[in-house]
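Predict the structure of Acyl dehydratase.
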Amino acid sequence: MVGRYFEDFTIGDEYRHPFGRTVSEADNTWFTLLTMNTNQSHFNADYAAGTPYGRLLVNSTLTVAIVTGLSVLDISQHAFANLGWEEIRMPNPVFVGDTIYARSTVLSARESKSRPYAGIVTCATTGFNQDGVDVITWRRSMLVYRRGHGPVAS
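Done. Here is the predicted structure for Acyl dehydratase.
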């Protein structure tokens, strides 16, 4: 199944998202410069060598973007609005060359009071590296279409 509709979510279900994404130096540099982040620990190896990590650190907002993307297939393929990310935590750094994976657990699912064609789903998502070390966690809520509603992809 590609994507879930509101009716497909059950509280407590866990999805291990099927893809991983290895972060390249180009990914990190381009994303950092595209978003105008001037912290040199993301794009200046000489500068980064003098930090506690001793090497380039992956931009944390790139980590958010990658983990969000990894989760789309399972939790937001049929969403039409993100309502928010809460309690974003980054317990461990991500470095160039790390491969990021993700899993999500359904925390709540309720009908929308204002949009009868949708429901509100909240999931806890964790991103982890190739060694199984958690690198990011959050709660995310989104409006998800009910089956038979919303646009149809051709």
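The chain has a mean pLDDT of 94.
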